[in-house]
């Protein structure tokens, strides 16, 4: 019954029309007959027609009806089919379809419409996702632009800091040169101070030599004073003895005149006593040798002092130090005093030696005369006891004794005056030496204070050098930080390049997706045509419902097409944004190149800033990669939808074949 209903009214049109689907069906049936022959009948056209049995029909429905498969398998939605649809257009074979087949076909169409609704919702979600993704990309692009601007500003600041660092380094270098110059001056002052101390030590050595000479002179004077005291004592004794003898002489003897000079005195004692004469000559020779040694010592000390003074004058001419000149002037004054004293000593030494010889001679004569007087006194005593008269020699001695004593007293007083004048002169020289010693001590204190000041200055110089090194280290750290910032800028630039490449790839994907949307439009139009043809063959009671479903599906598909067009428009907008971003990147590269050209020596800072920018752009590239992955997922969903549409078409064609 169902077969008669299915073949009623359509046999003529079906038999007179052979579509590509009929050809494929006949080929498939021929292949089945060759492999597994089964019962069937041959059509008037000569093709083998196989009418399925109820078992085959149920098996066919189980295998090819998504609704029955979903019900039997217990799942809510039919699975997605990925098999490709047949290449030629499918024309439904309504003459093979029963009412149940039509209801099943309508159910499949309803499911397809539901699936299309779900696909529309998913497409809406995808559109919202793409819109959010574009907004996110725009925000990320704005963030990248802001970061790029910040990187450019950081690079400008780095260039400014580099200029400031260069100027500060130049200032520090000038300060270092000034400190080095001050250090050299301080070192020269220290060398001069050491030279002053050396000259002072030499001068103190000269003063020490002069003090030794003066000490020796003082010792000689003390010895001479002792001799004078001894001679004075002996003279007093002789005077007392002579007074006693004078009192013992007769008036005639006292009236006799003494000889006019000492040469008139007889020297029979020296002639008769060679040992005494030899002893006197030895004493005179020792005195001469000591005087010669003193002269040689004074000459050597004078020569050494002149040599040291010449050396000090040469150093003073080289250094030109004021305090050293003062010390040398004091040394010259002291040397003049020493020279005067030496000249006085040299001038007085022969006179003193002559006086000493005369004094020794006179003293010897007096001793001899004393002995003669004693012998004369003893003779006179013996004569007085015995009664003889004195001879002429004794009378002459007694007569000249008073005159001799007076002459000797005058000579002793003159010698005492000379010794006193020499003592006063030595005291004056000692006072001058003490004053010069005080002046040298003052100069030593001044030099010591100067050395302390130089040490303090050297310490301050070391501290200043240390601070300068710390400042240089800080500037180097700042330069390293600026280089790191330049490196970050380079990284951000590389990331921007990567983002540009990713956006270009995304643009190509969107263009490809647009072409796929065009194919989907063609497929929808083809499906619409098939549905229109199917609607012509459906019963009147289902036409309105199918038409309504078809209109809904058509509206949904048109909305999907509109959304796809919106996506294409968004893709074109994204392409324009990519072009704009490329122009911005090109401008950024040009500005970066100009900045790098201007900076020059701050290339390390620029590299660090570029590295930071590359890092930021790498992050943006990762975001674009995520966008690309989302686009790939959307593309996969689109392909799945297309596969579902193809599967629906194939199911429809299979249902038509089954009917």
TrEMBL record:
Residues 249-272, 490-521 are annotated as: Disordered. The keyword Coiled coil applies. It comes from the Eukaryota. Gene3D superfamilies: 1.10.287.1490. One of its GO terms (molecular function) is single-stranded telomeric DNA binding. Keywords: Coiled coil. Residues 497-521 have a biased composition (Basic and acidic residues). One of its GO terms (biological process) is chromosome organization involved in meiotic cell cycle. Residues 249-263 have a biased composition (Low complexity). Residues 134-196 form a coiled coil. Transmembrane segments: none annotated. GO terms for cellular component: condensed nuclear chromosome; Mre11 complex. PANTHER family: DNA REPAIR PROTEIN RAD50, RAD50. This is Uncharacterized protein.
């Amino acid at each position: 019954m169902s077969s008669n209903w299915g073949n009623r009214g359509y046999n003529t049109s079906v038999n007179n029309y052979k579509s590509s689907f009929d050809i494929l069906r006949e080929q498939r049936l021929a292949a089945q007959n060759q492999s597994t022959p089964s019962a069937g009948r041959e059509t008037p056209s000569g093709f083998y027609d196989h009418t399925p049995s109820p078992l085959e029909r149920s098996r066919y429905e189980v295998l090819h009806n998504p609704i029955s498969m979903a019900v039997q398998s217990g799942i809510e939605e039919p699975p997605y089919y990925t098999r490709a649809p047949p290449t030629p257009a499918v024309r439904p074979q309504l003459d093979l379809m029963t009412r149940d087949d039509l209801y099943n076909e309508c159910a499949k169409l309803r499911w397809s419409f539901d699936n299309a609704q779900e696909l529309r919702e998913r497409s809406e979600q995808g559109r919202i996702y793409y819109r959010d993704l574009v907004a996110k990309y725009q925000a990320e692009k704005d963030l990248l632009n802001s970061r790029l601007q910040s990187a450019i500003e950081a690079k400008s600041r780095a260039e400014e800091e580099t200029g400031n660092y260069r100027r500060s380094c130049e200032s520090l270098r000038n300060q270092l040169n000034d400190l080095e110059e001050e250090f050299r001056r301080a070192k020269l002052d220290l060398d001069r101070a050491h030279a002053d101390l050396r000259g002072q030590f030499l001068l103190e050595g000269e003063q020490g030599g002069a003090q030794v000479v003066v000490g020796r002179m003082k010792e000689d004077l003390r010895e001479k004073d002792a001799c004078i005291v001894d001679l004075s004592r002996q003279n007093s004794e002789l005077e007392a003895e002579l007074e006693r003898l004078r009192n013992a002489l007769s008036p005639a003897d006292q009236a006799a005149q003494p000889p006019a000079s000492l040469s008139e005195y007889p020297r029979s004692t020296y002639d008769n006593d060679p040992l005494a004469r030899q002893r006197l000559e030895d004493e005179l020779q020792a005195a001469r040798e000591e005087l010669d040694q003193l002269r040689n010592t004074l000459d050597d000390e004078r020569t050494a002092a002149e040599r040291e003074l010449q050396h000090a004058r040469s150093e003073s001419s080289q250094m030109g130090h004021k305090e050293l000149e003062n010390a040398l002037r004091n040394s010259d004054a002291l040397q003049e005093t020493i020279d005067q004293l030496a000249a006085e000593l040299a001038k007085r030494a022969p006179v003193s030696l002559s006086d000493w010889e005369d004094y020794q001679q006179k003293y010897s004569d007096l001793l001899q005369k004393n002995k003669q007087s004693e012998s004369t006194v003893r003779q006179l005593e013996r004569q007085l006891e015995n009664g003889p008269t004195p001879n002429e020699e004794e009378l002459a001695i007694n007569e000249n004794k008073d005159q001799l004593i007076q002459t000797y007293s005058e000579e002793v007083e003159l010698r005492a005056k000379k010794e006193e004048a020499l003592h006063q002169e030595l005291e004056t020289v000692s006072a001058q030496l003490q004053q010069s010693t005080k002046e040298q001590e003052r100069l030593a204190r001044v030099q010591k204070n100067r050395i302390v000041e130089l040490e303090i200055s050297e310490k301050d110089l070391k501290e200043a050098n240390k601070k300068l090194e710390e400042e240089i280290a800080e500037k180097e750290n700042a330069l390293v930080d600026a280089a790191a910032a330049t490196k970050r800028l380079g990284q951000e630039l590389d990331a921007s390049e990567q983002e540009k490449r990713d956006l270009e790839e995304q643009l190509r994907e969107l263009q490809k997706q647009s072409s796929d949307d065009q194919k989907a439009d063609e497929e929808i139009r083809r499906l619409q045509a098939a549905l229109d043809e199917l609607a012509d063959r459906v019963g009147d009671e289902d036409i309105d419902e199918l038409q309504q479903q078809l209109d809904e599906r058509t509206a949904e598909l048109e909305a999907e097409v509109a959304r796809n067009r919106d996506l294409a428009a968004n893709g074109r907008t994204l392409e324009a944004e990519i072009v704009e971003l490329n122009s911005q990147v090109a401008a950024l590269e040009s500005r970066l190149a100009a900045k790098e050209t201007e900076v020059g020596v701050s290339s390390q800072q620029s590299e660090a800033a570029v590295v930071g920018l590359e890092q930021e752009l790498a992050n943006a590239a990762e975001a674009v990669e995520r966008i690309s992955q989302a686009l790939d997922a959307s593309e996969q969903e689109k392909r799945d939808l297309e596969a579902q549409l193809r599967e629906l078409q194939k199911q429809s064609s299979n249902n038509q074949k089954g009917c």
